[in-house]
């Protein structure tokens, strides 16, 4: 809560400071369907301290966004390899982007902490000249995207590509980093680049050489890891390493049939002589089926239960039969075991009771006197008569 009053004047001051330094305004004219490249150079944002100063020693980073929005419009991309190198705004506007777009670019000087704002007014218009229905896209593996955005390498690409195409005016339509199309950042090994997709358009048809490179036969060879069919001399090879397996050709010279607008009917089918409606189904009573399905198993289960109960409860061989079948001696033996066990149990329940007399060491059962035994009972014969 307390932070708000502190921050608000600061923010306002910052914005006023940005607005006060009268923002430079540049008007640019991108064209629908053609590549647009704008270089963000240190020199255009910060006047260098002295004329002899070495520009690359200044570290500047940029932030660009559509006016009133936090980010760039969908068609425009921003890239900068390092703060010492220029930044690029590039992209290919589509017909929906036609009109006026204002891009605000803030440059931060990383050495002096200066900031400068620049406004780019983009007036996006329709292309002039002939249509470019023949479009080809090449994957250049030997370059990063910043290396083909400046005009020199871009025009060199077109010039050398002209050797492969029927003579005609070639134009750059789109440039995309391979990283934006699912490519991977290469290992930091000398000579490995991210790769860049370059889309070129022309009014003149593809040469047979290009057609062959993009033919299904070539793709089949590529899928097996073999080089594609390149019937002509690769004029690009001296400057650009093009992946001939990833060439795609688009021929827009044949206009696509316009999508027919579906007409809405009244929702009622017209009379169709072949339409055979399903016959009326007769009502069926499923009650008996259901009852049979449920009751028969229930009855069987009940019957089995009753049978089992009868066998278990009524046909049990009783104790009487067991007792009769057992000899008396066994019964007595068993009974004494039971009695003794019972007595032991009772003794265990109350351990305070005096020891049973029979267990005392010197106890005469008949006289009750307590004397140490005079005879060693172990030596007295059990049956005295036999002595
Ligand atoms: C340019 O390429 C990018 C990336 O592939 C794509 O999103 C964009 O639609 C293309 N622009 C045009 C005008 O084709
Ligand atoms: C190149 O094309 C092949 C198929 O033609 C595809 O599998 C592969 O992903 C493409 N590579 C790149 C980097 O686009």
UniProtKB/TrEMBL annotation:
Task: Write down the membrane topology.
Answer: Single-pass membrane protein
- GO MF assignments: calcium ion binding
Task: Quote the InterPro entries the UniProt record gives.
Answer: Cadg (IPR006644), Cadherin-like_sf (IPR015919), Sarcoglycan_alpha/epsilon (IPR008908), Sarcoglycan_C (IPR048347), Sarcoglycan_N (IPR048346)
| UniProt keyword Transmembrane, yes or no | yes
Single GO cellular component term: sarcoglycan complex
Q: Where is the signal peptide?
A: 1-23
Q: Which parts of the chain span the membrane according to its record?
A: 290-312
Pfam annotation, one family: Sarcoglycan_2
Compartmental location: Cell membrane, Sarcolemma; Cytoplasm, Cytoskeleton
**Where does the Dystroglycan-type cadherin-like domain start and stop, copy by copy?**
27-131
Which controlled-vocabulary keywords does the entry list?
Answer: Cell membrane, Cytoplasm, Cytoskeleton, Glycoprotein, Membrane, Signal, Transmembrane, Transmembrane helix
**Family assignment from sequence similarity:** Belongs to the sarcoglycan alpha/epsilon family.
The protein's role, per its UniProt record: Component of the sarcoglycan complex, a subcomplex of the dystrophin-glycoprotein complex which forms a link between the F-actin cytoskeleton and the extracellular matrix.
Protein name in UniProt: Alpha-sarcoglycan
Chain's gene name: SGCA
């Amino acid at each position: 809560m307390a932070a708000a009053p502190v921050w608000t004047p600061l923010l306002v001051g910052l914005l006023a400071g940005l607005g006060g330094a009268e923002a430079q305004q540049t008007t640019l004219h991108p064209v629908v369907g053609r590549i647009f490249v704008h270089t963000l150079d240190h020199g255009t944002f910060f006047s260098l301290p002295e004329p002899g100063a070495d520009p690359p020693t200044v570290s500047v980073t940029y932030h660009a966004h559509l006016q009133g929005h936090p980010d760039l419009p969908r068609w425009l991309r921003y890239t900068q390899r390092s703060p010492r190198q220029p930044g690029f705004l590039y992209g290919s506007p589509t017909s929906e982007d036609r009109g006026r777009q204002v891009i605000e670019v803030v440059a931060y000087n990383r050495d002096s902490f200066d900031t400068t704002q620049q406004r780019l007014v983009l007036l996006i218009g329709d292309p002039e000249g002939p249509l470019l229905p023949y479009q080809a896209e090449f994957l250049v593996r030997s370059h990063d995207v910043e290396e083909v955005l400046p005009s020199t390498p871009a025009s060199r690409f077109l010039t050398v590509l002209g050797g492969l195409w029927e003579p005609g005016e070639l134009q750059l339509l789109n440039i995309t980093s391979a990283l934006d199309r699912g490519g991977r950042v290469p290992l930091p090994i000398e000579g490995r680049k991210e790769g860049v997709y370059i889309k070129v358009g022309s009014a003149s048809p593809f040469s047979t050489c290009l057609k062959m490179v993009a033919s299904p036969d070539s793709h089949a060879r590529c899928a097996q890891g073999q080089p594609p069919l390149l019937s002509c001399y690769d004029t690009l090879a001296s400057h650009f390493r093009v992946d001939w397996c990833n060439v795609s050709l688009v021929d827009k010279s044949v206009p696509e049939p316009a999508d027919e607008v579906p007409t809405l009917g009244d929702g009622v089918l017209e009379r169709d002589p072949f339409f055979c409606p399903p016959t009326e189904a007769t009502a069926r009573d499923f009650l008996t089926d259901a009852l049979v399905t449920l009751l028969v198993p229930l009855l069987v289960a009940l019957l089995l239960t009753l049978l089992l109960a009868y066998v278990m409860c009524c046909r049990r061989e009783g104790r009487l039969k067991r007792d009769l079948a057992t000899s008396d001696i066994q019964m007595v033996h068993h009974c004494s075991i039971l009695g003794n066990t019972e007595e032991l149990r009772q003794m265990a329940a109350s351990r305070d009771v005096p020891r049973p007399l029979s267990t005392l060491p010197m106890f005469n059962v008949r006289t009750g006197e307590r004397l140490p035994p005079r005879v060693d009972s172990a030596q007295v014969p059990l049956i005295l008569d036999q002595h």
